[in-house]
Amino acid sequence: MQVAIGTYDHTKGLKDGTVKTPGVDFDFVDVSPITRAFRPMATQQAYDVGEMALVTYMLARVYKKPVLGLPIVLVRSSLLPGLVTSSSSSVSDPRELKGKTLGVRSYTQTSGVWVRGILQEAFGLDLGSLKWVTFEGAHLDEYIDPPNVSRAPADANIAEMVKSGELAAAIGVPAGEGIRPFLADPAKAEADWAAKSGVRTVNHIVTVKQSLVNADSSLPGKLTDLFERARGSNGASVPPIGIEPNRKAFEALARFAYEQKITPTKMTPEELFPTAIKARV
């Protein structure tokens, strides 16, 4: 079984073979960075089991790709530190971005969907007033960006556009020379929103070929058990497995994706994970 997932504390046991189960043999494919595995898995089912950004998976469901997601969270990140602006900018209140043009690698990038949703919920930013410049399309070519999104020229550099002020802000650009975090204390701002909303963000999950599940309906349960055992003594230091421990995150991101015109409906966790085995943690 070809598998493309990242190496984390909670997957090392799978990759070094210390966690295994009869009848499930993993052949790990080295994809670096792991984000390069998302498009091949979503569009071609290039692997039997693959890591995938959650919004990419939502689009795979929308466009009826033969992949099934499991509520096995591989990555969750602190996201507001990735919202940056020019060091010369005096703006630090998200509401001051109203009517401005911002940049993001792809409009459907999962971290971008999260950041936009948090800016709207926590700070009252009117997302409908914003314009976006992107530097690549969605992982699924069927998706067409909304009218307020335009593509940067092929030779454009998002960091340079932030530094020059051509973009009022951008998502997913490292802070550095000429670029600073947009918020004065982004980690605290995100923690405050998380405490109020009860949401711990989810970025990447596990997906599996539909054909394999059709052939063996017990496979999702076997995979869930393997990933649970691989968590080992890491315990609470790694993301929980299952719909219920992640329900608020799944529901929030599905709502954000719908509100931001990425999905045509607000998908439920049960629609996203029809074969889910509830977490035993």
What can you see in these coordinates?
- By secondary structure, the chain is α/β, with parallel strands linked by helices.
- It is built from ten helices and eleven strands.
- The chain has helices spanning 12-15, 38-44, 54-62, 110-123, 158-164, 186-197, 210-215, 219-231, 243-259, 269-272; strands at residues 2-4, 27-28, 49-53, 67-75, 83-86, 101-104, 131-134, 149-151, 169-171, 179-181, 204-209.
- The two termini are 26 Å apart.
- The protein folds into two domains: 2-76 and 200-272, D-Maltodextrin-Binding Protein, domain 2 (3-Layer(aba) Sandwich), CATH 3.40.190.10; 80-197, D-Maltodextrin-Binding Protein, domain 2 (3-Layer(aba) Sandwich).
- 33% of the residues lie in helices and 16% in strands.
- A six-stranded mixed β-sheet has the order 8-7-6-9-5-10. It has a five-stranded mixed β-sheet with strand order 2-1-3-11-4, with helices on both faces.
